[in-house]
Amino acid sequence: MLRITPDHFTEQKLRLTLELTGESAAEFLRYSQKYSEIYGEEISLPLLARELVSDAIRQDKQFQKAKKAGPISKVGASSIPVQGSAPGRSMETTLSGGKT
Fold it and tell me: Which of 20, 36, 49, 97 could serve as 24's disulfide partner, Cβ 3.0–4.6 Å?
């Protein structure tokens, strides 16, 4: 089961647009459906995407090794270059297909 804690709602936030196509889109929707069947509860697509990214980061051994080796500077959303978005502007999350 995904680890969802109160920290998920109070931490720094970065809003991204996510577009999945083809097999990735189909598998993501299948994953969402299977999650509901296995755990007996529905999960929104944005929350599922957020948790899968978090799990991937936690499981990336090279990243975790680098993180332990030294401080990683905090990066604010306004300093991340995003095509079509000026610094300080809100970057919206958009997921299409299935339930949100």
Answer: 20
What CA–CA distance (Å, rounded) separates 82 from 34? Answer: 33
Q: Are 17 and 92 in contact (CB under 8 A)?
A: yes
Domain boundaries, the chain: 30-54
Say if CB 51 and CB 2 are below 8 A apart.
Answer: yes
C-alpha distances in Å from residue 77, one per residue of 6, 35, 42: 21, 30, 29
What are phi and psi for residue 23, nearest 5 degrees? -65, -35
pLDDT digits (tens, 9 = 90+) for 24-65: 999 999 999 999 999 999 999 999 999 999 999 999 999 999
Q: Which two tokens stand for residue 69?
A: 């080796």
Residue 49 confidence (pLDDT): 94
- pLDDT higher than 90, residue 91: no
Cα separation of 59 and 74, whole Å? 20
